[in-house]
Amino acid sequence: MTKELTKLQKAALALFEAKLNCAQSVFTVFAESFGLSQEQALKISSTFGGGMSVGSSCGAMTGGLMALGLALGYTEHDEETKESFSNLTEEYVCRFSKRFESMDCREIKNPHEPELKDLPEEEIEAILRQRCVDCVLFAVSLTENMLQENAPLI
User: Fold this and answer.
1) Is the dihedral of CA 140, 141, 147, 148 positive or negative?
2) How confident is the model at residue 75 (pLDDT cuts 50, 70, 90)?
3) pLDDT at position 110, please?
4) Residues in contact with 82: Cβ distance below 8 Å, sequence separation at least 6, in sequence order
5) How far, in Å, CA of 133 to CA of 123, rounded?
6) Distance between CA 80 and CA 83 in Å, rounded?
7) SS3 of 112, please?
8) Which of 8, 69, 79, 81 suits a disulfide with 73, CB 3.0-4.6 Å?
9) Quick one: pLDDT at residue 115?
10) At what angle do helices 22-31 and 121-149 cross, to 10 degrees?
11) Nearest 5 degrees, angle CA 20-CA 35-CA 21?
């Protein structure tokens, strides 16, 4: 049985299918609720897709982290607030990493896995793209959940 997508997951999937990157797809669906225009959100998050274009930290994950920062982040130095937000960030990264066994794009989308080696290139591309879709959908869900869990902070 397939779990029905939330409104925000559907919106993020539509952005991703429109060829926007994973970070843009995740961050943008939250941004307007917290005062940014869609254009601003797309610009801010444009450099984070594909693991910052070098396969580093997953763009879907960083898009979710940017949304948490926009919603819950701090603007003045206070050790207690900083520590609390650091704990929230660590929890997000841990949950994401647990789900995908990594937080890095190149590891999540490893095209050199033995089970992929004999497949045609177009099948490999489809499998890797589906991994990105899974990351986008999970990042949106995780962000939604963590925003609800931390609603008193908003």
Assistant:
1) positive
2) very high
3) 87
4) 74
5) 15
6) 5
7) coil
8) 69
9) 84
10) 30
11) 10
Per-residue pLDDT averaged across 44-72, rounded?
Answer: 96
DSSP H helical ranges for 18-120: 22-31, 38-45, 49-50, 59-72, 79-100, 105-108
Do residues 141 and 65 lie in contact, with contact meaning Cβ atoms separated by under 8 Å? no
CA-to-CA distance for 90 and 126, rounded, in angstroms?
Answer: 31
Q: Take residue 102 and report the two structure tokens written for it.
A: 């990594």
In the block, residue with structure tokens 């959100």 = 41
In the prediction, which pLDDT does 136 show? 98
C-beta separation of 147 from 72 below 8 A: yes
Place of tokens 């650091």: 86
Q: Which structure tokens are listed for 37?
A: 């225009």
- Those residues whose C-beta lies under 8 Å from the C-beta of residue 41, and which sit 6 or more positions away, are 24, 27, 28, 31, 32
The one-character DSSP state at 78 is -
Which residue, among 75, 72, 53, 50, has the nearest Cα to 136 in the 3D structure? 50
Instruction: Please tell me the total number of residues recorded for the chain in this structure.
Output: 154
